[in-house]
Amino acid sequence: MIFSPNVKSKKGANTKWHTTPFPTADKELIGIFTGLSVEVCENADIIELYTNGNYGKGTKSRSTPQIIRIESATHNLERYEETLALSLEEAFFLSYYLKVLTINNIQDERLEWFEMLQECETINRKFVCNLAAYIYLKSKCWIVKSGLKFGSNFCKKGPRFYHASFAVLISCNNEPCAHLVAKNIKGLQRIAETSDKDILLLDVTKPSDFQMRSLEDISRLAISESVIRRFNYAAFVQKKAQEK
């Protein structure tokens, strides 16, 4: 059976909104590494990153940064005291692969890629595997969002238009993972089903001698994907009845 993801439109979404999967700014954008994430402070930079790829999350908003709503309604770019928080994977990808973002530390000193990598691995020892999975999904032009509620959230046209299609689990070199215990997978399936999502498992395989000496070394990691889906007989019958 050919797999097809659940694509659920948001009510009132303007699907004619012009957006691109990657930022198109001519000037370099600035982010500050806080020790946990990278925050973008300038309004123009926030608008550029969020409207072209839906990168980051407003630090005082549930989803869309307030400055986006203000700009859309009034075209007024007056200062609004909210920053855009980028995940470590988002910031690394934007800065060192797309080269549209400069990451500085709190002393306003620029961080080179290997310095940022050390900081990220201190926070999360599986950062390289997560980064490889992130880049793999971005290569499909998907929107990749942090998934504290469901795992990780992915969709093709962004939170403005559709709800996320997947809750994603990342396994690195088949290391033991609490999420991959049968009982926990059942629980995650229940959570995913209530929000019309499927579970996507990404298995990242890293060579035993792997060391990231350059940005290109990330291509040495192999990624396989599989979808975990529980057959819902009641939903299947309802769908067939609606098709008649």
From TrEMBL:
<dbReference type="GO" id="GO:0000379">
    <property type="term" value="P:tRNA-type intron splice site recognition and cleavage"/>
</dbReference>
<dbReference type="InterPro" id="IPR011856">
    <property type="entry name" value="tRNA_endonuc-like_dom_sf"/>
</dbReference>
<dbReference type="InterPro" id="IPR006676">
    <property type="entry name" value="tRNA_splic"/>
</dbReference>
<dbReference type="Pfam" id="PF02778">
    <property type="entry name" value="tRNA_int_endo_N"/>
</dbReference>
<dbReference type="GO" id="GO:0000213">
    <property type="term" value="F:tRNA-intron lyase activity"/>
</dbReference>
<dbReference type="GO" id="GO:0000214">
    <property type="term" value="C:tRNA-intron endonuclease complex"/>
</dbReference>
<dbReference type="Pfam" id="PF01974">
    <property type="entry name" value="tRNA_int_endo"/>
</dbReference>
<feature type="domain" description="tRNA intron endonuclease catalytic">
    <location>
        <begin position="127"/>
        <end position="201"/>
    </location>
</feature>
<dbReference type="InterPro" id="IPR006677">
    <property type="entry name" value="tRNA_intron_Endonuc_cat-like"/>
</dbReference>
<dbReference type="GO" id="GO:0005737">
    <property type="term" value="C:cytoplasm"/>
</dbReference>
<dbReference type="InterPro" id="IPR006678">
    <property type="entry name" value="tRNA_intron_Endonuc_N"/>
</dbReference>
<feature type="domain" description="tRNA intron endonuclease N-terminal">
    <location>
        <begin position="32"/>
        <end position="109"/>
    </location>
</feature>
<dbReference type="InterPro" id="IPR036167">
    <property type="entry name" value="tRNA_intron_Endo_cat-like_sf"/>
</dbReference>
<protein>
    <recommendedName>
        <fullName>tRNA-intron lyase</fullName>
        <ecNumber>4.6.1.16</ecNumber>
    </recommendedName>
</protein>
<comment type="similarity">
    <text>Belongs to the tRNA-intron endonuclease family.</text>
</comment>
<dbReference type="GO" id="GO:0003676">
    <property type="term" value="F:nucleic acid binding"/>
</dbReference>
